[in-house]
Amino acid sequence: MVEKQELVQNRDPETLLCTYAFAQRMYNTPKSFIREILKVTENPGIISFAGGLPNPDLIDVGGIAQAAVAVFREDGRTALQYSTTEGYLPLRRFIADRYKKRLGLDIPPDEILITNGSQQCLDLVGKILIDRGDRVAIERPGYLGAIQVFSLYEPVFVPVELNSEGPDLAAFEAAMAGNAAKIFYCIPNSQNPSGITYSAERRKECADILAGTRTLVVEDDAYGELQFSGRSLPPFKKYLPDQTILTGSFSKIFAPGMRLGWVCAPPAIMDQLVVAKQASDLHSNYLSQRIASRYLADNDIDAHIRKIQVTYKEQRDHMIAAMQQEMPDGVSWTNPHGGMFVWVTLPAGCSSMEVFSDALKEKVAVLPGIPFYVDGGGTDTLRLNFSNSNADRIAEGIHRLGQVIRSRIR
């Protein structure tokens, strides 16, 4: 018996795939490149631009601790009990009120579902909407977390090229013509990975193309509060309220470890999302919801978000300045208006995977762009995260990265 157990434990993953009868969908679902890289970058000696981690210094540990104490003191037993699938009503009211204040949207709490981070929103959307072979339009490059979770439901991806204003209109119209996409998944604010923010004009143009079609917009607004100008642009939800599923997250403005996100959807879609969530996990962490709600009631979240915006803008500026000094000719990059990422394009013939490998030897971790493409591509692109490094580490990391790239294009 022991020998058989040891034999199974020692088999490599490829052998195990042949041993067990996994569902066919698992063979078409890519691993998260980021999760694999994060294992490598746990070494504190590595300067990591690879992940998408918020700045830990901006997590209000003291304030969250006080909120937790208050919840346990005043209503601890209830907070540790089962709860409703939809989520804690005062927290959903806060989200609804904030949409009204920030974006002018009238979204009732009944059209808001609390989830385990915004990643679960995408999984629930996939469960209720995507059948095998359905066309799913996605930005090119697109968010790899969405690519991974939608891949489970075996769609046909339709990539839509991005330019500095947002989706290329010709490509977008082509994706929506004829056998139109069932879903258009997008991140209009500080898109991950490119950092691009759709212009107000491009949002309206895309909405006009979609109006009257059966295509649903899945609008991921994880970075909407991180615009460095402090100004918010109109969401698709404003133009297409009955065609838009809007998702949000507390991970970037509160604490990612609390795993709290939300999804807003029209009532008929919300009914199905609730059923899917009930089948998945009954409800999101109720204690986290209660602590977050108490924190938001007792603290000035607007002041906290302004602090994040100022800090991230400074970190972006440090990274852009370092790249201007250190990068060789032929390297280009985006200058994002918000969010956490800079998108780098390498000179022709310079392999992002080789840069990634060489940079790790120099104790710098970057993320090759390849996983962000559903149709191949990205072999000459990198995503760099600036939010989780201070000025000195950014300067040193970009210096090392510049040296690696120089060695690759000689």
List the helices and strands and how they pair.
Layout: H1 2-10, H2 13-19, H3 33-40, E1 47-48, H4 61-79, H5 89-103, E2 112-115, H6 117-129, E3 135-140, H7 144-151, E4 156-163, E5 166-167, H8 169-176, E6 183-186, H9 200-210, E7 216-220, H10 236-239, E8 244-249, E9 261-264, H11 267-281, H12 286-298, H13 301-326, E10 332-333, E11 341-345, H14 352-361, E12 364-365, E13 367-368, E14 381-385, H15 391-409
Mean pLDDT: 93
Number of strands: 14
Major sheet details? 8 strands, mixed
Q: Summarize the helix and strand pattern as letters.
A: HHHEHHEHEHEEHEHEHEEHHHEEHEEEH
Which structural class do you get from the secondary structure elements? alpha/beta
Radius of gyration (CA) equals 22 Å
Strand content: 5-15%
Give me the number of helical elements: 15
Distance between the termini: 57 Å
Helix content: 40-55%
Give the strand line-up of the largest sheet: 2-9-8-7-6-3-4-5
Basic shape: globular
Regions with little confidence, pLDDT below 50 for 5+ residues: 1-9
Task: Give a structural overview.
The structure is a single chain. With 410 residues, the chain is of the alpha/beta class. It contains 15 helices and 14 strands. The strands form three sheets. It has an eight-stranded mixed sheet with strand order 2-9-8-7-6-3-4-5, sandwiched between helices. A four-stranded antiparallel sheet has the order 10-11-14-13. It has a two-stranded parallel ribbon with strand order 1-12. It is globular, with a radius of gyration of 22 Å. The protein starts with a helix and ends with a helix.
